[in-house]
Design brief:
By secondary structure, the protein is mostly helical. Helix content is 75%, strand content 0%.
Length: 216
């Protein structure tokens, strides 16, 4: 959970990973593991190309065996999680820039709506969801998910920044509101996987605004 001090000093690009670091994220941030950085960059390019990250193929392309690759970056889920979050960060930054004229709940709703829309329209991301739906939902939306913990922490930070420590007149805590907003975000982003419905940023926006007591 973020604190007021964190809200004042952190940024939308850093709050998530600061709240839920991983072994791999710390190795990459330290800058002391060039092999890990090289493997991560290669995996990220593969993912952006809409292709499956295969650990055997990645190891071969790097000229090492699988054991070395696992020693550098951990298992496939750990690598995928960091690749996914590395792509979420610029998406969040873009959403923040696009809503710079808004404030309060309107900005929270605006940022989250932009984020949902970018996820829905990113071809490489949709390829991943269609290719590995069960793994995608596990890595992105479950309580064990590092990505979800980072997203909730980011939403919590946004709520505190825009609405203060007692949002909606104190009817709910920032952490509780952040969690609900993230669950709404997930519901509309992954609607096709969860319920067979069509993902929709428009409906997500309506839900965010209702949750934040904004006029629609």
């Amino acid at each position: 959970m973020t604190t007021t001090a964190t809200t004042e000093t952190a940024s939308i690009a850093t709050i998530g990973i600061d709240a839920a670091p991983s072994w791999l994220s710390e190795r990459l941030a330290a800058g002391e593991h060039p092999d890990a950085a090289k493997a991560f960059a290669a995996a990220r390019e593969i993912f952006l190309a809409g292709q499956r990250i295969d650990m055997g193929g990645l190891a071969t392309s790097l000229g090492v065996d699988r054991t070395s690759l696992f020693r550098w970056v951990g298992n496939r889920d750990a690598l995928l999680s960091e690749v996914l979050w590395s792509l979420a960060v610029p998406t969040l930054l873009q959403a923040e820039r696009a809503t710079h004229e808004l404030s309060g709940g309107a900005r929270v709703a605006g940022i989250l709506t932009h984020f949902v829309d970018d996820l829905i329209t990113a071809d490489y991301f949709r390829h991943f969801l269609r290719r590995e739906p069960a793994r995608a939902l596990r890595l992105l939306t479950t309580k064990e998910s590092q990505i979800q913990r980072r997203y909730v922490a980011t939403a919590d930070w946004l709520v505190r920044r825009e609405l203060g420590a007692t949002p909606l007149g104190g009817a709910i805590t920032p952490a509780e509101l952040a969690y609900l907003l993230v669950r709404l975000s997930e519901s509309f982003t992954y609607a096709d996987l969860i319920s067979g419905d069509t993902p929709s940023s428009d409906r997500a926006e309506v839900a965010f605004r209702l949750m934040l007591r904004l006029e629609n």
